[in-house]
Every structure is written in C-alpha cells, then in structure tokens.
Amino acid sequence: RSEKKGEENAILTSFNRNFRSRNDGNPQTMNFLAAPEIVTAMAFAGRLSFNPMTDTLLDKNGQKFQFNPPSGDDLPRQGFEAGRATYEPPSPTPTPDPSVEINIDPKSNRLQALEAFEPWHGDEFRNIRVLLKVKGKCTTDHISAAGPWLKYKGHLENIAENTLIGALNADTGKVNSAIDITNNKEDTIPEVAKSYKRQNIDWMVIADHNYGEGSAREHAALQVRYLGCPLIISRSFARIHETNLKKQGVLPLTFVNEDDYEKISSGDVIETVGVRDIAPGKPVQLIVTKPDGSKVTIDAKHTMSQDQIGWFKKGSALNLIKSINHVK
C-alpha cells in the first residue's frame, strides 16, 4: 500500500516479525501481535476497538451475531511426527579436502567468498573513534535491514551497505547519520564506516539498552566486523546478538555504571585498559579523550568465557576452529 507510506497506521498480526516497515514498508505503521483467533475475529470487525468476547457484528442480512470462543485440541492427539524418517545425514568427511574449490562468478553481486577476519593484534586498542552513539531501540533489523537487502546475504561487501541505516544517532538526532572526523562532513553511517576502513581507522559503537534485540541474524555482527569495528559498548545487549558479536571477534562491553553512557559522544577517541590481559570476569576500562583534550575514564565489564576469549584472540570462532583442525 504505497499510497499509505508515511501515514500512521496499525496492523494486527499473528506473525512474530514486527520490525518497523517489515509488514507493509511503512515506517509509521504500528504492529501489534495477537493469537491467530483474535486476529481473525478483528479482521471481520475491521477495527481495533472490537471485543470478540462481548461485541456483535452484522451478517449479510443485517442480523447481529457473536463469535463463539474458539475450541480445539491444545496439542495433536497423536503427538508430533518424529521426523527421523525424512532426515538424511550428510556423507561423512573425516578430513577436509583443501583441493576442493568453490567457483563463484567474480561479477556476482549476490555471492562472494567470505574472507577470514584478521586475528586480534594482542595489545590494547588505541585511537578507536566513536563513529556512532545510538539512542534508544536498535534491533538487528536496524543494524542489518531485511527486505530488498536479503538478496545480498551471500555477499558481505554488498549487504554491508545497509549497516546501521536504521539506527538513531544520539548526537545528530537523525537516522543513518554520522560525522566523518577526517573531513568533518555528515554522511550515512555505512559511508563513514567505509571511509574509516579505507584509512585503517578502528571505530566503535556506543549503544543503549538491549542493543541487538529481535531477529538472531548473524549479519548484524558480520557487517560491523567487516567494516572495521572491533568493540561495542552498551548499557545492555540482547543475549543472542552479544554471542554473535563474540563469534565474529567483536568485543562486547557493558557499562558498569549505565549513566556513563552520557559521558561518551560521537567523535571521541577511545583507548582500552585491560584488554591485553583479558580474562573471564576481569573488568576493562575505557579512557575517553574528548575533542578539547580532556579525558574521562569509564569502567566496563564483559561476559566472555575462556572459549569465547579464544574466538576473540583468533579473530573469530571460525578462525579458532580452523586453527584447531589445521584447515588451510
């Protein structure tokens, strides 16, 4: 319904993907989740004020009628199909064969070989630039949008063009906005991230509560890592996204004091203290240098296990697996 784009609207749906613009392409549409029975009854009424338990509707003859409460079995009487008869295990491959090549058309804009990320350099992070301070909700759909971008899921460079385009910049007050400190010009978040990547400038994100909530899409972690983000600090993380960041070699930190979120801004320069000797439960500090040269020290913490620290040191979980199995 393109004619409704930009207008406030509401959708009642039983489909549990209620990200902004997901159902009808309109960012102003509010999505409410309900059981299929409620959605069906409300569809007949055509209004959200309808109460299917007490209100009546008119049939084609103008007669009032009321829905009966739904009834049925909560679970299948015969149980669920085990599914084992349809499962075929893959052929065993005891040892990887490095001679096997996957041929991808170099002109393809949908498929691209995934290159291994560089391992951690083994020292503190220094001179990390805060590219973005996120304000409010930032789901994985804000970090890696779906819709027309889904065709690029096999091409990391192309899908990275949508990185954080739905995020609200707390400093500019705009969505998909960032200031490039190398030229002091405002641009989109992906463009600034690519500019920093070309110049070998590490950058990071300052995030609000429950950063990365929603879908478990791994591209939300892959993309920031690909564009040169080794570190994200938030008031809190959504659990699955936090793990996905760890798997891609990104260090997820949280503020010990959530109010310290207010002490960092886009363009600040960050240095870590404690990453070089990172260990489970061991705190980390961030030394924040402001544009005027003043410094602020912020206490941070992480939830990295010893195994996850291994992922971080190798650059990703896949890198660690490759090193253990001696895969080329």
Automatic annotation (TrEMBL):
Region (Disordered): 61-99
Entry annotated with the keyword Metal-binding: yes
Protein name: Aconitate hydratase
Domain Aconitase/3-isopropylmalate dehydratase large subunit alpha/beta/alpha: 6-46
SUPFAM superfamilies listed in its UniProt record: Aconitase iron-sulfur domain, LeuD/IlvD-like
Span of domain Aconitase A/isopropylmalate dehydratase small subunit swivel: 130-257
GO cellular component: cytosol; mitochondrion
Keywords in alphabetical order: Iron, Iron-sulfur, Metal-binding
Gene Ontology terms for molecular function: 4 iron, 4 sulfur cluster binding; aconitate hydratase activity; metal ion binding
Pfam families, A to Z: Aconitase, Aconitase_C
InterPro entries (UniProt xref): Acnase/IPM_dHydase_lsu_aba_1/3, Acoase/IPM_deHydtase_lsu_aba, Aconitase/3IPM_dehydase_swvl, Aconitase/IPM_isomerase, Aconitase_4Fe-4S_dom, AconitaseA/IPMdHydase_ssu_swvl
